[in-house]
Design a protein that fits this description.
The complex is a heterodimer of chains A (555) and B (256). By secondary structure, chain A is mainly α. Chain A folds into two domains: 36-77 and 357-555, MetI-like fold (Orthogonal Bundle); 84-282 and 301-346, MetI-like fold. Chain A is built from 21 helices and no strands. Chain A has helices at residues 35-58, 62-77, 87-119, 124-139, 142-153, 157-182, 185-192, 198-237, 240-249, 253-282, 302-324, 329-346, 355-386, 395-409, 413-424, 429-454, 458-466, 471-500, 502-508, 512-522, 526-554. The radius of gyration of chain A is 27 Å and the shape is globular. Chain B has one domain: Rossmann fold, CATH 3.40.50.300. The termini of chain B are far apart. With 256 residues, chain B is α/β, with parallel strands linked by helices. Classes of the chains: A mainly alpha (555), B alpha/beta (256). Chains A and B meet through α7 and α8 of A and α2, β6 and α4 of B. Chain B: Pfam families: ABC_tran (PF00005). Chain B: GO terms for molecular function: ABC-type phosphonate transporter activity; ATP binding; ATP hydrolysis activity.
């Protein structure tokens, strides 16, 4: 079994390349088949086929798309110039919505921190239990929580706050736990090595490391919760969401535009503040030496001052928010008692009134989600890549793409659905819903792709460029090559989000099942509401399971 | 140096990772009070694993380990924490919290003797803060006390880590490749600092190194490890670089 080198080796002679052990056959070894490769190729294929089939099922064609966007443009023409009948009330409602978001986020922080630490525990049972709670909170959409809390304690901001809070525990708990898991174990060992106890290890070795990412997660969630609280307005939590829904209900599109513009402006403001603060937090710290004049007195550097200001400011803000939404301890206790009572209304589910339409309705829901994800991903990936500094060919393209991205992102999902449903009419609800979600998905996918593309390691790109690659080669090999697993994860995440969006469609009555849901919510048939929500919920969990499996294969 | 009381005693220490990685294959080692010992050997020879056993960060598969009179193998909970308090550790990667100040990182060394969690400098008693400051002064970084630890150079960060270990008021110092991440000049000054404070305070030190020259220059006794076994254990004076290099030569190739 002598190693046979390729005989055409050019001079000067090189050492013969080693042949693979156990095989003397020269030439290229076959690429081994693996689950990973199957998934990497299979997923986009299956996804594209399903997307096209779903669009066909819903009756969304190219002609329809063009006509539909024509309708939307016609609607927008009737919506200018914007008016505000009562600016003072509108602004007061925006503020109400903002307080709701702050209170909901603050309410979620403490339980999420406890669960996050427990979910990163090394003790298996503790970890599983905490993860179970986190997953449950994440899986139930905030709108569903809101319907439940409205049934439990009546309409008002508090049920909205409780819904946002409970749902936020899911995301925050997960992000908190991930931060703890990623914390440098060396530091934890160093602190453990000093003989520190468990609480000391947590506060001395873990918390200082995770603090920036925890705060960033909270700010990010606040940003999301503001959009969410707009939506909750439409199910009885009050605030700006109710104004939007009312304006569309009265087909007063000019007023709707006015309210929408105010909402979008505040969304942009909240996001701007959130992004700026997160940038500050995660950026590098000051490297200036501080002369130690008084040996043990801590000097008031700018950083220390800013930290204290932000910390105490956040506490004060949360306190004001709790006061504004009426989240006193007594009210929270009442809410807990009311929730226990309300459980009896929601369970057991009553499938009888909806038995006939569940099958078709679920299929339609899945088709809407698939179609919207497919269209949205097609548009979102190029947009996201164009918006990333590391990929965009020049600053003009990048800034243009960024502007489109931020503009799309700032439109609350409820508003998109309302606009498209108003343009198409409720009869064409599924098509309207699909297109609205497609726009929403494009923005979401573009944002995630852009974020990931920004973080690409430059090493592989430099290596490819050094090898004489052109820009397209660089894109396919160095950019997409690194991004493929992320693209799959993003697509699956968008699908997941779009399945949940069923509940938003339901609020405006789009789609067969959504229309039934909105009717039964209005009629207080809570056991029927459960019967509609549960199957969709099972569908969402199934997608989540598939997604988790695929991601672990592609990792 | 045979007169001192034994500080570290291992008997038949065995540790295997997976099925076939014998990190420690029955190691017997005694280190007496005041000794400064280098554990020398190539990567994968088991020296770091051995060191991590001495304060219970790693548990052995079998064997006895006594450190400062405490049975490390069975110690857990409060007893283990009490032992760890008496053993200062210096890590190759410094293991500082980069975004905290130098002072806060040093203060973490006193966690074992205060009760309850701490967060922020002002939550520490003034006496501890003064002591921490003295140690920072001793390692030459008093003027950096309120600077972010992550903004210091590697050598400075390791000095902070040494100050943190000193604040434990340790009886034994374990140093795991303390200078492997540093350039030669900085490495020499950090080794000098480490050995000097140990001599001055009469501390026992066990230090893993992979550079022969550093071991010969700074320590009094060299224990050579290879494939999880002690292959050599002699006073530094009796050794030379040529003999030590034998530890690093590859074994005769044994292809199955």
């Amino acid at each position: 079994m002598s190693p046979r080198a390729r005989s055409a080796a050019p001079s000067p002679p090189r050492p013969a390349p080693a042949s693979p052990p156990g095989r003397g056959v020269p030439g290229l070894p076959r690429v081994p088949r693996s689950g990973r490769r199957m998934a990497a190729w299979g997923f986009p294929l299956v996804f594209a086929v399903l997307g096209v089939v779903a669009l066909d099922h819903l009756g969304v064609g190219v002609g329809g798309l063009v006509a539909g966007f024509g309708e939307v443009v016609a609607l927008l023409a009737r919506a200018v110039p914007p008016t505000l009948a009562d600016p003072a009330t509108t602004f007061a409602h925006v503020l109400d919505t903002l307080w709701m978001a702050v209170a909901g986020t603050a309410l979620a922080t403490v339980p999420a921190a406890v669960l996050g630490v427990l979910a990163a525990s090394r003790i298996r049972t503790v970890r599983s239990a905490a993860l179970g709670v986190i997953v449950a909170c994440r899986a139930v959409p905030d709108v569903v929580f809101a319907v439940f809390f409205v049934a439990a304690i009546g309409i008002g901001p508090l049920p909205g706050v409780l819904a946002l809070g409970l749902h936020s525990v899911g995301m925050l708990g997960k992000l908190f736990a991930e931060a703890v898991e990623q914390a440098d174990t060396g530091v934890r060992e160093a602190v453990a090595g000093t003989g520190a106890g468990p609480a000391q290890r947590l506060l001395g070795g873990v918390l200082p490391q995770v603090a920036p990412s925890w705060v960033a997660a909270i700010l990010y969630r606040l940003d999301i919760n503001f959009r969410g609280s707009v939506l909750l307005g439409a199910v009885g939590a009050g605030g700006i969401g109710l104004d939007l829904k009312t304006a569309f209900g009265f087909t007063d599109y000019r007023e709707a535009t006015g309210v929408a513009l105010v909402t979008v402006a505040v969304v942009l403001l909240v996001e701007g503040v959130s992004v700026a603060l997160r940038g500050q937090l995660l950026g590098a710290g000051g490297a200036r030496a501080v002369p130690a004049v008084h040996a043990t007195r801590v000097p008031w550097t700018r950083g220390r001052f800013a930290t204290h200001l932000a910390g105490w400011g956040a506490l004060a803000l949360a306190a004001v928010a709790f006061w504004r939404v009426g989240a006193s301890p007594a009210a929270l206790a009442d809410a807990a008692a009311g929730s226990v009572r309300a459980l009896g209304d929601f369970f057991p589910p009553d499938f009888a009134p909806v038995a006939g339409l569940l099958g078709g309705g679920l299929l339609e829901t899945a088709a809407i989600a698939l179609g919207a994800t497919f269209l949205g991903t097609l548009a979102g990936v190029p947009l996201g890549l164009a918006a990333a500094r590391a990929v965009a060919p020049n600053d003009g393209v990048r800034l243009g793409a960024r502007t489109v991205l931020v503009g799309l992102r700032s439109i609350p999902d409820l508003l998109l659905v309302l606009v498209f449903v108003a343009a198409f009419g409720l009869m064409d609800g599924p098509v309207a819903g699909t297109l609205a979600l497609a726009v929403f998905t494009a923005a979401l996918v573009a944002k995630l792709v852009a974020d990931d593309a920004e973080e690409l390691r430059s090493g592989p790109r430099e290596a490819v460029l050094s090898a004489g690659a052109g820009p397209v080669q660089e894109l396919t090999v160095a950019v997409l090559g690194q991004l493929t697993p992320r693209l799959t994860a993003i697509t699956l995440y968008a699908l997941d989000v779009n399945l949940r969006a069923f509940f938003i469609l339901g609020i405006v009555g789009a789609g067969e099942l959504g229309y039934a849901l909105s009717q039964h919510i209005r009629a207080l048939n809570h056991d029927v509401v459960t019967a509609i929500v549960l199957p969709v919920f099972v569908l969402v969990l199934a997608v989540e399971a598939v997604s988790a499996r695929l991601r672990s294969v592609l990792r | 140096m045979t007169g001192g009381l034994p500080v570290v005693e291992t008997r038949g220490l065995v540790k295997t990772f997976g099925d076939d990685v014998h990190a420690c294959a029955s190691i017997d080692l005694t280190v007496r009070q005041g000794e400064i010992v280098a554990l020398l050997g190539p990567s994968g020879s088991g020296k770091s694993t051995l060191l991590r056993h001495l304060n219970g960060l790693t548990r052995p598969d079998s064997g006895d380990i006594r450190v400062l009179g405490v049975d490390v193998v069975t110690a857990k909970g409060a007893a283990l924490r009490a032992l760890r308090r008496r053993v200062g550790v210096v890590f190759q990667q410094f293991n500082l919290v980069g975004r905290l100040t130098v002072m806060e990182n040093v203060l973490n060394g006193a966690l074992g003797r205060v009760r309850g969690p701490r967060y922020g400098i002002v939550t520490w008693p003034k006496s501890v803060r003064v002591e921490a400051f003295e140690h920072l002064d001793r390692v030459g970084l008093a003027d950096r006390a309120y600077q972010r630890a992550g903004s210091l150079s590697g050598g400075q960060q390791q000095r902070v880590a040494i100050a943190r270990a000193l604040l434990q008021r340790p009886e034994l110092v374990l140093a795991d490749e303390p200078v492997a991440s540093l350039d030669p000049e900085t490495a020499a000054s950090v080794m000098d600092l480490l050995v000097r404070v140990c001599r001055e305070d009469g501390l026992t030190m066990v230090c893993t190194l992979h550079q022969i020259e550093l071991a010969l220059q700074w320590t009094r006794r060299v224990v050579g490890l290879r494939r999880g076994e002690v292959r050599l254990d002699e006073p530094t004076g009796a050794l030379d670089a040529v003999r030590l290099r034998g530890l690093y030569l590859s074994d005769p190739v044994t292809v199955p």
